[in-house]
Amino acid sequence: MSLDLPSPPTRVDLASHACDTCRQRKVKCKAPRVPAGVSPPKCGRCDRLNLPCTFLSPSRTRGPKRRTRGAEPAASPGATTTITTNKHPTDELWDRSLFGVIMQDYLDYIYPLVPIVHRPSFRQALRENRDRDDQGFRALVIAIAAVVVATMPTRFQVYQSYNPPLQFASRREMARCCYDRIMGLRDSTYFDQISFQKFAISYLLYATFRQLGDHNTSRMLDVEATQIARLLNLHRISEYEGLNCIETQLRKKGFWLILYGFVHNQLQNVLGERLSYLDPILLHSINPEDLMPLEVDDEMIFENEVVMSPSPTPCLATGFILHSRVFWAALRSPCVETPVEPCPCVRARDPAIQVAYLQDRLQSLRYLLEHIPQPLRPWRPTDETLDDATGDGTMTQELRSHFASMRANLHVTHLWLQSLLIDQLEAAQSHLQGLSVVADSYPQTTTDSKALWLVREKLCRQLLFVLYSLPLVNLEANGLHLACKVRDIAASLLACPFHPDDPEAQRAAEYLQQSTDILSRLDSSESMSTMHLQTWVDTDRMKK
């Protein structure tokens, strides 16, 4: 007779190296075993709880911990022995496992919009704990941590709930601490040698304080980043000779990142207090195609070669390139074969030339994004559409999120730049009372205030369409910049030229209400916006 014995319990394979979250929570990690060199997927626990799952923290040797060098043995059984683990200079700022989560959050949320590192090299440096001995890399990761916290308030709240938690009361407090720590790593010879890494540190700090609304500090850091960019000749393709493939790609991306700020200043420098990265002569000497990054992911770029895909498919670089083209179109014609455009001094003397110039910029921007890859189009594509667009049918959830963040950045910027140019066009047309210089191909840019207002209404309607089609986390990844652009576009509807009872005025009120609702969720700044106000104090002018 056979006996019905209970089946032996199913054996659960545990990972040889637990993920950072499970180690921090002190629970067993159920990550599947993978061959050496292969990035592990999310462990079962993190996947179920929707927690970040990273493997950046170093493994520690089992057994008794080493005594600190020079520490004497305990004199008695009750005496305390001083012991230490592998310490890192940043341990005073955050727990090491939390540091790994912050770095992963940069790669997950901020990198698609600020690709200022080479991902494989950056990950390798994190695995090697290079920040422990390399002061330059340490300053870089501290700056990255600062920009993550400044950009994403909800992640900061998550960091405060860790055990041990992040010991900062506010994002501004952490950003200033990071800034002080980075400044403490410099000496009087810091600028004797320059590098792209030093540019990246200055740019990230500039972006940090601009995200927080600390415009005085951000101005000064903008000047520092701009100066290093000029010394590195990021704007001169002839100076790229001798650089390896990784450095070339990084510097091209760096040029466009600094140009974004340049365009912001050109269109919004109300007080005239910001220094300029490029003068008109340099700007007209640049061929934008020469400085466009290669349309390929970092993983395909090595020091001595670039592995191009046999069939072009959208990648993160695709969104970055399109975003750069949008900014360039706000300044100059995207077609290098067009005649030389009038310089700012000529446009300032002749309002008719200025109007024609602004109309051309609007025309270029309006149709610039008509034929772009499906994952970057303004509407939210289905999973099947995304998979088909990449050609392999295996787009990961991470990549879908990256594209969503880039869609918000790309299309909100596209609409915002058009809104700013309409502001300038309206001002230029005020000098041309009764003069019609409007091209037939763009009839909206007329001297009729009502017709011009209808263009603004259309931009606002498109803006709301984009914002409501994207998850909040992908909007948040764009930081305070997005909220400011949304506010600028919506505010343009306040000067409605129609009677309050007209349908146009009622639609404007509805759009403003919807914009206010969105801004209440997007704008989580810790201080009042003072972008267009004088925020500095000239102590030599203060009355005694």
From TrEMBL:
GO MF annotation list: DNA binding; DNA-binding transcription factor activity, RNA polymerase II-specific; zinc ion binding
PROSITE patterns with a match to the protein in the record: ZN2_CY6_FUNGAL_2
Keyword match DNA-binding: yes
Polar residues: compositionally biased ranges: 78-87
Domain Zn(2)-C6 fungal-type: start-end pairs: 18-55
BP GO annotations: DNA-templated transcription; positive regulation of metabolic process
InterPro entries, sorted: AtrR-like, Zn2-C6_fun-type_DNA-bd_sf, Zn2Cys6_DnaBD
Tree of life domain: Eukaryota
Keyword terms of this UniProt record: DNA-binding, Nucleus, Transcription, Transcription regulation
Positions of region (Disordered): 57-87
Transmembrane segments: none
SUPFAM superfamilies in UniProt: Zn2/Cys6 DNA-binding domain
Protein's name in the database: Beta-glucosidase
Organism of derivation: Aspergillus heteromorphus CBS 117.55
Taxonomic lineage from the root: Eukaryota, Fungi, Dikarya, Ascomycota, Pezizomycotina
